Amino acid sequence: MSKPLHLHLDPLGGIAGDMFVAALLDAWPELAEGAIAAVRASGLGDDIQIKHQPHRDDVLTGSRFDVSRTGAADDSDDHEHVHWRDLRLQLSRAPLDPPVRERAIAIFALLAEAEAGVHGVDIEKATFHEVGAWDSIADIVAAAFLIEALGPAEWSLSLLPLGGGRVRSAHGELPVPAPATVRLLQGFDFHDDGRSGERVTPTGAAILKQLAPARGLEPGRSKRLLKSGQGFGLRKLDGMSNILRVTAFAPGPDPVEPAVAGSDSVAVLSFDLDDQTPEDLAIGLDRLRVLEGVLDLVQMPVFGKKGRMATSLRLLVQPAMIDCVIAACFAETTTLGIRWHVEQRVTLARHMSSADDGVAVKLAERPGGRITAKAESDGLRDVGDHADREQARRSAEKGALLRRRAEEERE
Asked: What local confidence, expressed as pLDDT, does residue 80 receive?
């Protein structure tokens, strides 16, 4: 199963419903037709005009999601009073895809709860004013469509701008952030960039509340940037573009976990020799390599005291077998002392396969699902010369990988 997208929202100018929709459509313009069709299906009249179009200010380019009504002289004064129960009924009967309908109703339900709390009434008696108007219905339904169209995703959010001052409403002037917005965004993190005005609208706040984004990008996880989109708001901000930016990330490969067979402890034994003949040492080391509990043995030439050539030995040993292996090292070599300690290790998942000619091949599962093959040299001892051995090695490794793929397809 593929991992979900990670969508990060950066509200440089702020966030409103139309900015959210515009940012997603700027990144995925192919979804514009479906979003507009969903808005049309929500029950808005034929006098409502809906456009997704490119937009630029003096600095940046992006998109706008414009919703207007034919014949409306001043949309800012076009306050409608819509009861939550009526709007819920309208959306429940609308010919929308069930997931889109449910998400749109869920976003409006959060708004209704906030409005009811602000005015001290039962939620069933909640009345929308600005957020019940045709443009807010269009923004929320389009947002619901886009969220569902993008499929399961992880969402995160940068700090929200606080704003300040006053905003006109059907109830007169209200402080910024508006009371309903404050209730919706309890627990979210804000910052004050010194610019006033309504930077987060109730519709934008309700969308965020319903998405429940994480605070910022999660540290320590690799991500691959796919695309970004910028949605412009209506207001102009002094010295800053009024945009909401969305950046889409695909999960990067986990550097270890997908291929890890397990983690455990291993004992590391080391000692040096300068007084044992090479012939006798070779016999002793062969015996140590096959000893129970010995995972690996490495010998390295070094210069010891007085400029003598010496052999440095390192053994990887199962911790439970330390005493037995140490005793064997003293018995098979001339060393007078052994250093040891325990380390943690992580190992890749691996297993043995075999070629048609019987050559053993070690398969290892590496990060990103990649599988590598390595033929065991012991199986090549009786194969011709160097060129013959190389050909046999490549053939054995290729055959093992092909068999592995066939097994995975059958599974």
From this structure: 65
What does the block give as tokens for 387?
Answer: 């060129």
What does the alpha-carbon distance between residue 63 and residue 229 come to, in Å, rounded to a whole number? Answer: 8
- Cα atoms found within 13 Å of the Cα of residue 385, Cβ hemisphere only: 1
Q: Picking from 226-230, 261-265, 320-324, 397-401, which range would have the lowest pLDDT averaged per residue?
A: 261-265
In this predicted structure, the answer to whether residue 192 has a pLDDT above a threshold of 70 is: yes
Confidence check: pLDDT of 230 > 60:
yes
Name the burial class of residue 327, with classes exposed (0-12), middle (13-18) and buried (19+) by CB atoms within 10 angstroms of its CB.
exposed
Q: Give the pLDDT score at 291.
A: 94
Residue 177: CA atoms inside 13 Å, Cβ hemisphere, count? 26
Q: How confident is the model at residue 338 (pLDDT cuts 50, 70, 90)?
A: very high
Q: What sign does the CA torsion over 75, 80, 85, 86 have?
A: negative
Contact between 150 and 24 under an 8 Å Cβ cutoff? The reply is: yes
pLDDT band per the 50, 70, 90 thresholds, residue 351: confident
C-alpha to C-alpha distance for 287 and 290, rounded to whole angstroms? 6
CA of 154: how far to CAs of 108, 122, 215, 242, in Å? 22, 33, 11, 24
Beta-carbon contacts of 45 under 8 Å, excluding residues fewer than 6 positions away, are 134
Q: Is the dihedral of CA 8, 13, 14, 17 positive or negative?
A: negative
Q: Residue for token digits 């605070």?
A: 215
CA distances from 97 to 93, 146, 203 (A): 11, 12, 21
Report pLDDT for 256: 43
**More confident: 123 or 21:** 21
Tokens representing 378 are: 């012991």
